[in-house]
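Before the break, one more example. Copy the sequence into your notebook; we will annotate it together after we see the structure.
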Amino acid sequence: MPFCKEISWPGCGLLMLWKVEEGENFPVNLTENSRKRLAGMKRSDHQKGFLAVRMLLERTGLADSDVLYEPGGRPFLSDGRHISISHSQAFAALYVGREPCGIDIEKIHPRIVKNQPYFIGNEVIPAEAGPEMLTVIWTVKEAIFKLSNSRPLSFLNDLHVYPFDLKAGSGIARSTFPGWEKEFSFHFEPIEDYILTICKE
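Here is what the structure looks like once it is written out:
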């Protein structure tokens, strides 16, 4: 069974992971809107991630039809609970809970070192910060963006991660976007060669 694990973090709801396997079938019922979205995805890993999230929904007793979208694009559930979705190559992740949280999962890759000038502004990070720490910072900013309801946030100028210890698995970040100044706590966990992060106010 491809299902990977469930994670419960204090103060949050349920976070579930699906490890996508090669040649896997996804026997899920999709709404017409989801079928159109799936058909528009050109990459097979995006399609598999999308379907794996729907499999996770079914594990919680929900269906694809229970997922609705705000005008800004943020998903929510018809029963009033909050939801956050992420998928990256081998993994799909789903959060369901009473409290709004954003999640992100990303593969740790050396190229992120070259890309850091595009998403790290005035963060104080060690000079020797490697791909793992940089991937944590990226996933934190992605998770916060998912809470922002598509505000035009700049990862470089509006989102900031305070210094943190990789061994601690947690930290604090903030948004300085005008009118949306907020502080967030985040938790992260290495999953194989990926970083999974959950963030909340």
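The chain has a mean pLDDT of 89. The first helix runs from residue 32 to 39. Try to locate both features in your own notes.
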